[in-house]
Amino acid sequence: MKVALVYDRVNKWGGAERVLLSLQKLFPNAPIFTSVYSPQKAKWAKEFDIRPSFLQKFPHVVSNHELYPFLMPMAFERFSFSDYDLVISLTSEAAKGVITNPGTKHICYCLTPTRYLWSGYHEYFRNPALRVFSTPAVSYLRKWDRVAAKRPDTFVAISKEVQNRIKKFYDRDSLVIYPPVDLLLSGNHPESSLKITKKEKPYFLIVSRLSKFTKYKRIDIAIQACNELKLPLKIIGEGNWKEELQQMAGPTIEFLGNVEDKILREYYKNCRALLFPAMEDFGLTVVEVQSFGKPVIAFRGGGALETIKEGKTGIFFDRQTKEDLVQALKTFDLMAFDEEVCKKNAQQFNASKFKDTFLKLVHKAI
Asked: CA 357, CA 77: separation in Å to the nearest integer?
């Protein structure tokens, strides 16, 4: 069986890329078709067969793909999959729009319906002038997105939250297969030589991309809350929002940039809790930190509702405001959490379960 993987773009590192690697492990000989590829920003992909679209030759596209929204549909529609039995698209944007022959099955593993067109539209286009100016473009892309959503033979959602969005925006039924969280689970990888010093104050942790296009992650309110309470907060991640966040950060906030997995393990193991103020589709970091026995302080919404047991592996706050997060941090200070309960909860999302479930779906589809 010849399999091809399709992904929106290979030019960054984050939770979605971890999911892509998990699929690549299941189908190690499958090439990865994508709109653009940056060997510098995606060093994790250097050993794979990456096949970028014609957009690869366009100026500035690798770092600023947002400049070419109208060409993304064409980029994926022009790929040929006539030699393949199965196409698996992993997407939150245009990759689901590939065109396959009747004899080729297409499974779409959907991270979310395109956020800036649907669930996150009002957040991305908060500026009234921008909203008016962008109306023709958004209208065109929404129409194409609905057409593209009819092309996969099977839709798979990464969470119940995403399953509901697929039904709402695409009117497609889907099944839920939670993504695997195995890259950082205890015992799977050699221990890091880095150790957090005993003199270091207990700290809270955020692990996230810091992009201006992902401001919905609300890292700003976490910084504001920790500023007010003078709590140590370490932030792992990179992006073009970082400089702005650093300017608002007080002396107890530390930015660590991107770190290797073996170092990230140590920060997970030694934190008090992960702060998760986003309305996320799933939230891999929420499960990762629990796999090290640590709880989560999260916004009550999105995929976090499916991965956190309230009062046992974390607590929620109800509004994405500094004030609500401050109150949650004060409440957290009065509580205790069992490490083993957190670890057990994380095991629901292990790689073995993902592999068995996904391969059963593939065999059924073929």
From this structure: 29
Residue found under tokens 């990762």 = 288
Query: Do the beta carbons of residue 244 and residue 264 sit within 8 Å?
Result: no
CA-based radius of gyration for the chain: 21
Q: Which residues of 302-332 are buried (b: 16+ CB within 10 A; e: fewer)?
A: bbbbbbbeeeebbbbbeebbbebbbebbeeb
Helix (H, G, I), strand (E, B) or coil at 206: strand
CATH of 3-180+350-365, one of 3.40.50, 3.30.390, 3.30.310, 3.30.70: 3.40.50
Domains 3-180+350-365 and 204-348 share a fold: yes
pLDDT by residue, tens only, the chain of 366 residues: 999 999 999 998 888 999 999 999 999 999 999 999 999 989 999 999 999 999 999 887 777 777 778 899 999 999 999 999 999 999 999 999 999 999 999 999 999 999 999 998 888 888 888 888 889 999 999 999 999 999 999 999 999 999 999 999 999 999 999 999 875 443 333 344 444 444 568 999 999 999 988 899 999 999 999 999 999 999 999 999 999 999 999 999 999 999 999 999 999 999 999 999 999 999 999 999 999 999 999 999 999 999 999 999 999 999 999 999 999 999 999 999 999 999 999 999 999 999 999 999 999 988
| Alpha-carbon dihedral sign for residues 206, 157, 356, 10 | negative
Closest CA relative to residue 300, chosen from 260, 272, 328, 259: 328
Please tell me the distance from the alpha carbon of residue 312 to that of residue 337, in angstroms, as a whole number: 6
Class of domain 204-348: alpha beta
Residue 147: both structure tokens together: 């057409």
Q: Which helix or strand (DSSP H or E) is residue 356 part of?
A: helix 351-365
Residue 320: HSE in the Cβ half-sphere, 13 Å Cα cutoff: 14
Q: Which residues contact 189 (CB under 8 A, 6 or more apart)?
A: 183, 261, 262, 265
The domain locations on the chain are 3-180+350-365, 204-348
> By three-state DSSP, how is residue 285 classified?
helix
- Rounded CA gap, 248 and 224, in Å? 8
pTM: 0.90
